[in-house]
Design goal:
Blueprint (H helix, E strand, L loop, with lengths): L5 E7 L32 E6 L7 H4 L2 E3 L19 E6 L2 E4 L6 E4 L6 E5 L30 E8 L5 E4 L6 H8 L17 E7 L2 E7 L26 E7 L5 H15 L8 E6 L6 H15 L3 E3 L8 H12 L16 E2 L4
Parallel strand pairs: 1-3, 2-4, 7-15, 9-11, 9-12, 12-13, 13-14
Antiparallel strand pairs: 1-8, 2-7, 5-6, 5-8, 10-11
């Protein structure tokens, strides 16, 4: 399945149906009077977050969503049928943004969460509702309230407890393959990871989700390499695992490059709890590893854990630190009002 984390779509709710102009005419019934029914309500546009999806690829091929309008009223005071609501299913972690991408209109973080995004128009009044003591045979009727429409952007931010960051070939894919069943691509060349990967770690009868994003290089905030667009997928992470390649010429400078790109991106990434892992230590002498750890501790002012994603050395200690930073497992979130009805949002 192709990965897509941004899509622009058009949404429009249904307009209300027109009211009817009708008069009761039955044999042997005198002075029948008006009996035109009201129009039906138009369908709502509803967004729903569902589990099992991690891409917006469906919105590349379907970009216009229009709910049906309400049916017109008819005689005998019959109200027209309402238009069916149109439910747009999106992955958990999807944000709905305004057309200029400046405002977040909805944010879906809970499975099954539903939001009435655009409300359908109410039906128009039939002529029976216009009858008064001085207007016994009205012929006016309501045409129905208009629909609401707008262009919006969908932006997916994957939900993970821990995020992997580092330069290309720092061993992030090897690490996530070692601790999960993600089966990320591994290769001896930069940018083997071209899209975010999610994996589930099981440890101490507990599970947490870890996300691997494409490697960062110097200037990523300005578009170098793949750029920093995938950093949005770790904005919601509780902790970052920063992997540094011990076999590179200057691991300390490499650490500073990634930290600089996180700071340039913003969104509070540089302030998140961080676990630093010196990777590929199995390729170096123990004495050299100790020297690198000392230098990296001095530069980062944090604990540095040696590990090897290929051999498995030190992985347990890293996972323990991640679990400590993530904190106790959370219960499933519930709606504040305790109801199962979708929340309602209005652009007006």
């Amino acid at each position: 399945m192709h990965f897509l984390d941004q899509a622009k779509i058009f949404v429009r709710s249904g307009a209300g149906g027109p009211g009817a102009v009708s008069f009761r005419r039955e044999k042997f019934i005198e002075y029948g009077g008006p009996d035109g029914g009201n129009g039906g309500k138009g369908g709502d546009i509803i967004f729903e977050a569902i589990p099992g999806l991690n891409t917006l690829i469906d919105f590349r091929y379907t970009q216009h969503f229009r709910a049906p309008r309400g049916a017109g009223g008819s005689g005998s005071n019959r109200t027209g049928a309402g238009g069916d609501d149109l439910i747009i299913r999106v992955p958990i972690g999807t944000q709905v943004l305004s057309e200029d991408q400046e405002e977040v209109l909805a944010d879906f973080t809970v499975p099954g969460e539903r939001v009435v995004f655009l409300r359908g128009g109410d039906g128009g009044r039939g002529n029976a509702t216009y009858k008064t003591s001085t207007n016994r045979a009205p012929r006016q009727h309501g045409t129905g309230w208009p629909s609401q429409e707008m262009y919006v952007w969908l932006r997916l931010k994957l939900l993970a407890d821990a995020g992997l960051v580092g330069l290309p070939n720092a061993g992030k894919s090897t690490f996530i393959n070692a601790v999960t069943n993600a089966q990320a691509k591994v290769g001896a060349y930069p940018f083997t990871t071209v899209r975010p990967q999610l994996g589930v770690v099981s440890r101490y009868n507990r599970e947490f989700v870890i996300a691997d994003i494409p490697g960062l290089i110097e200037g990523a905030a300005d578009g170098a390499g793949i750029g920093d667009r995938f950093l949005g997928h770790i904005e919601r992470c509780k902790v970052l695992l920063h992997l540094v390649d011990a076999t590179e010429d200057n691991p300390v400078d490499n650490y500073r490059i990634v930290r600089g790109e996180l700071e340039a991106y913003g969104a509070g990434l540089v302030d998140k709890p961080q676990v630093i892992g010196l990777n590929k230590v199995d390729a170096l002498d123990p004495a050299d590893v100790k020297k690198l750890i000392t230098k990296l501790k001095r530069a980062s002012k944090a604990e540095v854990l040696p590990l090897s994603g290929a051999s498995g050395d030190g992985i347990d200690a890293v996972l323990d630190r991640l679990i400590e930073a993530i904190g106790p497992a959370e219960t499933v979130a519930k709606r504040e009002d305790g109801s199962d009805e979708p929340a309602e949002w209005s652009p007006v």
